[in-house]
Design brief:
Elements lengths: L4 E5 L4 H11 L6 E5 L5 E5 L7 E5 L6 H17 L4 E6 L18 H12 L3 E5 L14 E4 L2 H11 L5 E5 L5 H11 L2 E11 L2 E8 L6 E9 L3 H12 L5 E8 L5 H6 L3 E7 L13 E4 L2 H12 L13
Parallel strand pairs: 1-4, 4-5, 5-6, 6-7, 8-9, 8-11, 11-12, 12-13, 13-14
Antiparallel strand pairs: 2-3, 9-10
Helix pairs in contact: 1-8, 4-5
The chain binds ribose-5-phosphate.
Length: 316
């Protein structure tokens, strides 16, 4: 990496930003990102960024609005400090599930967030396993949506026997991702027909595919309350599945997710460090895999204007 690059972060996931910096062999750039006494976000970029290719690592995880606002205010500061290009590196893109008007009088908050990012100064966005690929169209700037599948595949290969395993999508929307995993692992595929009754509660209607006597690997982009995952695991057990594993990119783990997972039929849940896992959420069933090399490689390729398509190959 040459001197024209600068890597910043807000407070959302400092450990991940440091891991990316280490991989790139560059220091994290210096900025004050704190609060005024009334809670307003206070930012001061502490080094010269004039003409630089700037990357800011900031997932918009909980506290969602604070982390989002830090990112927006940092970009405003960098833009006004004459950074040449600003890439918002958003490993977990919050608000992505509000991506359409599925009821009367609801917002499309994902589009609003996209507008805010652009207005604040983002020249491009780098993210991982965006909840819905179409969100890319909410931006009129380049957006690279990386896939975490490669991070999980090696770990899963050590855990499963392909002929005796089925990859399961917990909902119809996740079929493409699940098919990618099944192909890469050489397993069969099943799909759960799920109905969401409320933001916290889901119901399994049917399981499409053969799961009896097999180990199951549930794959998804987000685990929030854990409702979808735990309901799916219960239904799979009922249908005669043996061990149940899960590989889920973003461990939002909100509400009573940890309690639900602890008491569930899931033997092992793999997540990534796109979102920091709070100490009280660390349980033996959850293993965190590192996405820093993936993001660092993408940052390097963006900086040197090289193709990054190799980093989002589902192989399907
Ligand atoms: C839904 O479309 C997503 O892919 C996840 O399955 C969902 O957001 C998980 O939410 P929860 O853990 O609250 O069921």
């Amino acid at each position: 990496m040459n001197k024209e690059v600068a890597l910043f972060c807000g407070n959302a996931n400092v450990a991940l930003a440091k891991a990316i910096a280490k991989y790139l062999k560059i220091p994290l750039s210096d900025a004050l990102v704190s609060r005024f006494s009334d809670g307003e976000v206070r930012v001061k970029i502490k080094e010269n960024v004039r003409g630089k290719d700037v990357f800011i690592v900031q997932p918009t995880c909980t506290p969602v609005n604070d982390n989002l606002m830090e990112l927006l205010v940092m970009m405003d500061a960098l833009k006004r400090a004459s950074a040449k290009r600003i890439t918002a590196v958003i490993p977990y893109f919050g608000y992505a599930r509000q991506d359409r008007k599925d009821q009367p009088r609801v917002p499309i908050s994902a589009k609003l967030v996209a507008n805010l990012l652009v207005v604040s100064g983002a020249s491009r966005v780098l993210t991982v396993d965006l909840h819905a690929g179409q969100i890319q169209g909410f931006f009129d700037i380049p957006l690279d949506n990386l896939y975490a599948i490669n991070i999980f595949i090696d770990a899963l290969r050590k855990m499963i026997r392909p002929k005796k395993t089925v990859v399961v999508s917990p909902d119809v929307g996740g079929i493409k991702m699940a098919r990618g995993y099944a192909k890469r692992l050489g397993t069969s595929l099943a799909i759960i027909d799920k109905r969401r009754n409320s933001p916290e509660s889901t119901e399994v209607m049917h399981i499409l595919g053969e799961v009896k006597g097999k180990d199951a690997v549930l794959v998804d982009d987000i685990i929030a309350t854990g409702g979808s995952l735990v309901e799916a695991a219960t239904a799979l057990k009922k249908e005669g599945a043996r061990n149940i594993y899960a590989a889920i990119t973003h461990g939002v783990l909100s509400a009573n997710a940890i309690e639900r997972i602890s008491h569930s039929a899931i033997s092992q849940l793999l997540i990534t460090n796109s979102i920091p896992l709070a100490r009280e959420k660390k349980i033996s069933k959850i293993k965190v895999l590192n996405m820093a090399p993936l993001l660092a490689e993408a940052i390097k390729r963006i900086h040197f204007e090289r193709s990054i398509s190799i980093l989002f190959d589902y192989a399907d």
